Amino acid sequence: MSRKQMVRPGGRSARVQAAVHSAVRELLSEAGRDALTVPLVAQRAGVTPSTIYRRWGDLQELLSDVAVERLRPDGEPEDHGDLRTDLTAWAEQFLDEMSSPSGRAYIRDALLGDPDGGNAGRCSAYAAEQIDAVIARAAGRGEDTPDAETVLDRVVAPMMYRILFRPAGLDAAYARRLVTDLLRARGEGGR
């Protein structure tokens, strides 16, 4: 079990996490990844290195935890008025963010420091929550909607594969094509 799952939320623990995460982000932007060390992060965060080791285990698990938090969406997907437009806009933004150099670094860090697979599950849950919001809005408007798992399989999974293994040619048109193909296969106006 990962150390971070044993920590109580809130209070001092939340303040330590916020300070350490902030220190990591600042140091990454100032000095780069190669210069990052646990003692340097601890000094910037105002904690002891043993606090970081006790909570995260090692630098890679810390980077993984920071990456997962950075991959969390800031808010609900935008409402453009219909399923096709909402899902397309979300997929384009997702692809743009995840395929950027920083997005790829966060994905890599989230997976590398994740011995039990929990961070991958959290990242997947973030995408599923966003898709659920798009689907719920469309269903509320009376539109016929796919289920979230189908969207994950037909839109998100191919994008993640391409981001990780075949990044050439990734652009908004690719995201639009995936959404169009999904909706066309369902007979939902894939124009």
**What is the level-2 CATH architecture name of the largest domain?**
Orthogonal Bundle
**Beta-strand percent range:** under 5%
Which CATH top level class of the largest domain fits? Answer: Mainly Alpha
CATH fold assignment of the largest domain? Tetracycline Repressor, domain 2
The end-to-end span amounts to 47 Å
The counted number of beta strands is: 0
Radius of gyration using CA atoms only: 19 Å
Structural class: mainly alpha
CATH superfamily of the largest domain: Tetracycline Repressor, domain 2
Overall residue-averaged pLDDT value: 89
Order of helices and strands: HHHHHHHHH
Number of helices: 9
Poorly predicted spans: 1-8
What spatial form do the alpha-carbon principal axes imply?
A: elongated
Number of domains: 2
Measured as a percent range, the helix fraction is: over 70%
Described by strand count, sense and barrel closure, the largest sheet is: none
Any descriptors?
single chain; 191 residues; mainly alpha; Arc Repressor Mutant, subunit A; Tetracycline Repressor, domain 2; 9 helices; elongated; disordered N terminus
Give a brief description.
The protein is mostly helical. It folds into two domains: 3-57, Homeodomain-like (Arc Repressor Mutant, subunit A); 74-186, Tetracycline Repressor, domain 2.
Secondary-structure map with pairings?
Blueprint: H1 11-31, H2 38-45, H3 49-56, H4 59-71, H5 83-99, H6 101-112, H7 118-140, H8 148-165, H9 172-186
